[in-house]
What we know:
Elements: E1 2-7, E2 10-17, E3 25-30, H1 40-51, E4 55-59, H2 66-81, E5 90-96, H3 98-112, E6 119-125, H4 141-145, E7 150-155, H5 163-172, E8 177-182, H6 196-219
Protein name: TEX30 protein
Pfam family, one: Abhydrolase_11
InterPro entries: AB_hydrolase_fold, KANL3/Tex30_Abhydrolase, NSL3/Tex30
Amino acid sequence: VKVKIPFGNKYLDAIFSVPKKKLTHGVILTHGAGGDMNFPQLVSLAAYLASHGVLCLRFTCKGLNIAYRAKAYRTVVEYLKLSDDYKLSGVFLAGRSMGSRAAASVIRQLSQDGDDDFIQGLVCLSYPLHRPKLQSKLRNEDLLFIRCPVLFVSGSADEMCEKQLLEDVASKMKAPKKIHWIDKANHGMAVKGRTTDDIMEEINTQVFSWLRENIELEQK
Length: 220
């Protein structure tokens, strides 16, 4: 289902992937610095989640300014929260690369405003912890503030997320967290000798099983 979400004097293009059965939870998903909501990894994940009963709303927001991206993301969260078509008890924020930074930023803002009851967790695909070869400047400030569960899915050879550095940051986080390493994958989640579909299947099943665990915890 294609929708246009009002954002200031513009609109954000978005697509709902809707499960057949009654749904309780959703995932909002956005892309990295390049590309848009039709980035193959996002399309694949959205279809997988919807086929397993999780609503997925993915959206496009062009712009390389992280504050702008976070503002757009927050607008989408509000839109879904107030939606009459889909009554959800909670939502997980997810993004790829820069999109996951924007998601983390929104969760921090909402928790500081005391408005994070709707947010159930954060999924970071290829979180860009630092610029290539700039390991001294970590983009970890939002992560350290977050309290809701966080899943990282990163390539062990990601040039923007050195394995040891992410593990160090995770150890300092107060939130419940899990890291799933895709062996030998780079920032684009490519691995020599493995097909894209094979890697996507690994990512999709990891994300879904983590979501399911956290939804079950919440419903107990």
